Amino acid sequence: MSASSLTTEQALALAPDPASASAGQRLATERSWQGLGRDERAAWGECKGSALYQVRIDLSDLATKCTCPSRKFPCKHAIGLLLLVAGQRIPSGTPPEWVAEWLSKRSTTAERKAKREAAGPEGAAPADPEAKSKRTTERHTRIQKGLGGLALWLEDLVRNGLAGLETETDLWNTQAARLVDAQAPGLASQMRQLAPLLGSSPDWPRRMLDGLGRLALVTEAWKKLDELPPLLAADLRSLVGISLREEDVLVQGERVTDTWVIVGQELEDTERIRVQRTYLFGATSGRTALILQFAAGPGARFAESFLLGTAVPAELVYWPSAAPQRALVQERKGEVRPHTEPVPSLTLEGLCQRFADELSRNPFRERTAAMLGAVVPVVDKAGSGWLRDATGTAVRLGTCDRWRLLALSGGQPIDVFGEWDGEEFRPLSARAEGRLHPLGGPS
Amino acid sequence: MNELDTLTRLATLGTSRSPELGATSGVEEQVLRALEGAPMEKRLLLAAGVRAVARAAGRKLPVLDTRGEVAAPDTLEVCSPRVSAVLTEALVSDKVKVLQEAFALMARARRRVPPELLPRVLGLQDPLVRAAVEPVLGERGQWLARQNPAWGLATAPAADTAEAERVWAEGGPDERRTALAQARRSDPARARTWLQTTWAQEKAEHRARFLACLEVGLSPEDEPLLELGRKDRAATVREVARYLLTRFPESAFARRMAERARAVLVWEKPGTLSVQLPSKWDAEAERDGLDKAPAGVGQSEHWLIRLLESVPLRAWEGWFEATPEQLIAAAAKTDHGVALTEGWALALRLGTSSTWASALLAFWSRCESKVLDAERAQQLAVSVLDQLPREERAERTLRILNRAESLPSLERALPLVPAPWPAKLGYAFLQAIRELYDPSTRATALLGALRPAAYALPPECLANATDPYELPQPLYRWNQDMHLFQRIVSLRRILHEELKP
């Protein structure tokens, strides 16, 4: 991407943890560097640490490389250089040999990878089909047992009444742990989402019953997994937590080549693992795709970097689904560029229509993501936030940086991207003055 | 619980307690009927699940009658992306002084804070920054601030008089002092009346602190109250009162002290000074501060300082028809050189004078350490430098930096020069830093001043200051300070480049 479009916030967002971000800031000054320079493709410089480190950034996908021994990635030196790029503080120049070499090596590697993938799965070692099928059956049986237990537990709950629940907090964790043991981690996380509902709003019993009812639907559907249409069965399997391996996705999934705009992103940071959720919007196809990336352990990196408000031509492969959403990047086909034009948006009615359509194909879908066009964030007398369109129709606002959303709108209609679960619309970004701004985090 | 729908009521109570289902309709009714014969719990759960999906798909959106207020269109242009990047970095790393300067420069260049940074900017707590940010919030920022009571702007009407009076009557000592100081700024007479009415009930320590508040807006009408202070039981209160009374040469106290001082110092032309102290003062003089010296201070030294600090310096030049240099040269020849010059140095508070200041500093520089120990010389020099106008402080510091003067030390002088430094001092400072090679006292002084210098260097010096520079190896322990210094100056440099008026 061109050096003029990377913002300081985006550069900071690339840091693996707050410590690296602040260490990078300390290095974002010319005095820490020598031989700073950049051209269309790359930026580089030598950073003076306990030794002289050669740092380089491929501006086309913001990949970085540094000669320092840090295990964090990107390291503080790379963050420092990214910040200098964002601050437009690097003079133009011709790349020195160590930069040119790296860039050409990167291009070769990409080509080789493409070739290897083109060769297809024939190159891979043949799996033992018999052992594989045995493992699948075993797991299936274990899940079957786990879900049976879940169904009984759910029935117990409504037999004794939700009114008695209020004080029992460990209940959910115990049940979630049982589901993990039963190799159904997807349902375990759904179960954990129910716990905070307790007493959260006046209509919590209804919302709790909704959630329990949906879990009951899953236990019931699982019994008839073999009778379901194949794509819906795939959805159910992934909901329960049997994820398809990426190799299998590549073979079975639908491929879509488009220019993909990064329209929303959020990072979930827990003790053990960081999960990055990135929404892409196909400029031509109008399709939405969700890329999930996981990084375990401190300083671990995400395989792909995506910057909000940029676009990249790429081939995506969707996980097989009755209403495809999750995808992986099969191949980038060009440079990352800033995307300043508006992204096609939905009306509020269109949003409901879209979710109804997706639910009709996959009733287990929890939420859909969309860009809402020309809505005004307003706060009603009770202090609740809404997104309201020109007719007065409104969706309830979910958790987000509400003040930033208000600041961006100033009471005027703006485009807001977010997730809709049928109850609340949770904004992830909003478009103002030709740029997408992140809105994740609490208000 | 009446407003709960049938399914939710049943689930809340529990099927064991309430086996009756009640009336249903819609999809849940269809599911319940389809599952007839299955256990009630299962029917209930599946009906609820189906209903939840159907609801999510067929949600009827409400129509709001609330219409938000719309922000007025902005007339100021939003600041450039480079300035925005500096603001973001300063906000993230909490560099309050950079923000303050940025806002001032933006106001001058008629630029505003970009909308996405407004919530963080409005959340700033430091009162100085809050005041600086106001002109650059733009219409959008003002509008946003009105939506969140926690962001009440600095322009909120000042606390009303009745509230201030209540604080004065009922508050804790610190609150009361703040209220008194505030009242003194807006209405000196009212503040005086407040203090007069409560004077007799105040504790000694509070009397001294409250009385000191009168320094702002001091006028001859304060004399009666100050006279009460002069006769106070507590020495601290008397000292404050005496100092404030000397600020009026016309006050009875100042006149008495001037008369006594003039009688004590005897001048013979062309240049001889002698000191003729009485062996004992009368009772009134004692109340005026000519009392027994505290432990460790000579009796005559104590009296001379008390006398001389109460007399404006100009008076001596008039009475003796002599220049400050002549007077100090003559004082040097007496046995009381240090006491006389210290008294005169304190008198600079009553009216500053560069000639007196330089003559005093020159005298102390020449004093041997037997006569005036080095630490005391430093303290005296700092007190004198502190009384000089900013340009003269900067000039003297520059001469100290260039080794043309030695008092006060570089280490003490540099922090006394207020921002912004004159360019000459800035350049000399940067040059001197680059010439350092070992951890000398000079190095300690210069590198110790990096922090204030980062904010005090004037715009002309910023390009020079951002030139990459690595400290030589013996000075590595200052590398972090150097680093922070260069980070701050490079941010400031961008601001000054981007926000030219």
How would you characterize this protein structure?
The complex is a heterodimer of chains A (443) and B (501). Chain A has 443 residues and is α+β, with helices and mostly antiparallel strands. Chain A contains twelve helices and 16 strands. In chain A, strands 5, 6, 7, 8, 9 and 10 form a six-stranded antiparallel sheet that branches. In chain A, helix 6 (170-181) packs antiparallel against helix 7. The longest helix of chain A has 32 residues, at 129-160. The radius of gyration of chain A is 24 Å and the shape is globular. Chain B has 501 residues and is mainly alpha-helical. Chain B has six domains: 3-57, no CATH class; 80-151; 161-245; 248-348, no CATH class; 352-416, no CATH class; 419-501. Chain B contains 29 helices and four strands. Chain B has helices spanning 6-13, 26-34, 40-57, 81-92, 96-109, 118-122, 127-133, 138-147, 161-170, 173-186, 188-198, 204-212, 223-230, 235-246, 252-264, 283-287, 299-308, 313-320, 324-333, 337-347, 354-366, 374-387, 390-401, 410-413, 423-435, 441-448, 450-456, 459-466, 479-498; strands at residues 77-78, 111-112, 265-268, 272-275. In chain B, helix 19 (324-333) runs parallel beside helix 21 (354-366) and helix 20 runs antiparallel to helix 21.
The number of domains of chain A is 4
Strand order of the largest sheet of chain B: 1-2
Can you count the beta strands of chain B? 4
Helix content of chain B: 55-70%
Described by the principal axes of the CA atoms, the overall outline of chain B is elongated
* Multimeric organization: heterodimer
What number of domains of chain B? Answer: 6
Topology:
The complex is a heterodimer of chains A (443) and B (501).
Chain A: H1 8-13, H2 18-27, E1 33-38, E2 42-48, E3 52-58, E4 63-66, H3 76-86, H4 97-119, H5 129-160, H6 170-181, H7 185-194, H8 204-223, H9 230-240, H10 246-252, E5 255-269, E6 273-282, E7 288-296, E8 310-318, E9 327-332, E10 337-338, H11 348-361, E11 368-379, E12 385-388, E13 394-397, H12 402-409, E14 414-420, E15 424-432, E16 435-438
Parallel strand pairs in A: 13-15
Antiparallel strand pairs in A: 1-2, 2-3, 3-4, 5-6, 5-8, 6-7, 8-9, 8-10, 11-12, 11-14, 12-13, 14-15, 15-16
Helix pairs in contact in A: 2-3, 5-6, 5-8, 6-7, 7-8
Chain B: H1 6-13, H2 26-34, H3 40-57, E1 77-78, H4 81-92, H5 96-109, E2 111-112, H6 118-122, H7 127-133, H8 138-147, H9 161-170, H10 173-186, H11 188-198, H12 204-212, H13 223-230, H14 235-246, H15 252-264, E3 265-268, E4 272-275, H16 283-287, H17 299-308, H18 313-320, H19 324-333, H20 337-347, H21 354-366, H22 374-387, H23 390-401, H24 410-413, H25 423-435, H26 441-448, H27 450-456, H28 459-466, H29 479-498
Parallel strand pairs in B: 1-2
Antiparallel strand pairs in B: 3-4
